[in-house]
Design a protein that fits this description.
Strand order of the largest sheet: 2-3-1-4
Strand content: 5-15%
Number of domains: 2
Radius of gyration: 33 Å
Order of helices and strands: HHEHEHHEHEHHHH
Number of strands: 4
Structural class: alpha+beta
Largest sheet: 4 strands, antiparallel
Helix content: 55-70%
Oligomer: single chain
């Protein structure tokens, strides 16, 4: 038996007509959300709060990484010689250090130069005048290749520890390693909170879309009765979810921008006191574009979850 033909066979619609339909639906969705501005604003604030925390953790982790790369002592160590060591012995060891294949530069500080540097601090000038002799040793600042790992850096530094004129060798990378460990912890915490708060943003959007869907329930039943597909019925609610998500992303962007403005000046003063200049990362258009895209995706997912669940519950007798 031949299969029955559809009474109204489907024809392929022009792309321009499909585009006009989507534009019309977007316009209606914008009109619907703006007509309920108080509720929409509350939804945007909730979604923005949910997105701001993981995005802020991402910015913290990113800035820690940038600061770690910019810090001059990341690939260096300091050699402190014994007090009273002869200039000849010091120069001989400095030459040995320079000849090492992994060493890039070596700069020395004489006891007199160290004393002059300490004397420049007013807080200890009076105490320095009471000393009968110079208690400060000579030192050397050694910079190694940037590609050297922390383990290899420690090995290179330990090669000179047994020399008689060396009192102490300090690898000035330990605290930066801790800083990087904190950055790794913040990164993982950001992922965990991002998943949790992302799910919260989806649920907030789903609840808002579900409310909008209930307000148009009779219209949806009529559309299903005349043969409208679920994709056609779902379309305006997906756009509503995208509008909620995009609005929440804009709220999160404003919160993060305000936080960067408030924190940039004191953090800049702190790092400049250590002789470093650092610019906080996070004001790039790519970051805010990505934040907006994530908000739209979360909103669409929320709208899809709410509309599909409710459409399955609607029975047309």
């Amino acid at each position: 038996m031949a299969a029955s033909k559809e009474p109204w066979p489907r024809s392929k619609r022009p792309i321009a007509a499909t585009f006009r339909d989507h534009v019309s639906v977007i316009r209606d969705s914008v009109r619907f959300t703006s007509s309920r501005f108080g509720t929409s604003l509350l939804v945007w604030l909730l979604i923005g709060t949910a997105m701001a925390l993981p995005a802020g953790l991402y910015l913290i982790e990113r800035n820690i990484e940038v600061i770690s790369r910019q810090w001059d002592s990341l690939n260096s160590f300091s050699v402190y010689f014994e007090v009273g060591a002869s200039v000849g012995d010091i120069n001989e060891l400095v030459q040995q250090i320079r000849n090492h294949s992994d060493i890039v530069t070596v700069s020395t500080v004489t006891p007199e130069e160290a004393l002059n540097e300490f004397s420049s601090y007013k807080e200890i000038t009076d105490a320095m005048t009471l000393l009968e002799s110079n208690p400060l040793p000579a030192s050397a600042r050694v910079t190694v290749d940037d590609q050297l790992s922390l383990e290899r850096l420690s090995e290179v530094a330990s090669q000179f520890e047994a020399v008689g004129v060396v009192d102490e060798i300090v690898v000035e990378r330990a605290w930066l390693q801790r800083l990087q460990a904190i950055g790794e912890f913040i990164s993982r915490l950001g992922w965990v909170l991002g998943i949790l708060f992302g799910a919260g943003a989806v649920l907030i959007t789903a609840a808002s879309v579900r409310l909008a869907l209930e307000m148009r329930l009779e219209e949806i039943k009529v559309l299903k009765l005349v043969g409208a597909t679920n994709a056609f019925i779902t379309r305006p609610f997906l756009y509503s979810g995208a509008i909620y998500g995009l609005g929440g992303a804009l709220v999160a962007a404003m919160v993060l921008s305000a936080a960067l403005i408030l924190l940039e000046a004191p953090l800049g003063a702190l790092w400049s006191s250590y002789g470093q200049m650092v610019n906080l990362q996070g004001d790039e258009p790519a970051f805010y574009s990505g934040l907006g895209l994530v908000g739209v995706i979360l909103g669409v997912i929320g709208g899809l979850v709410a509309s599909n669940q409710r459409l399955r519950e609607i029975n047309i007798d």
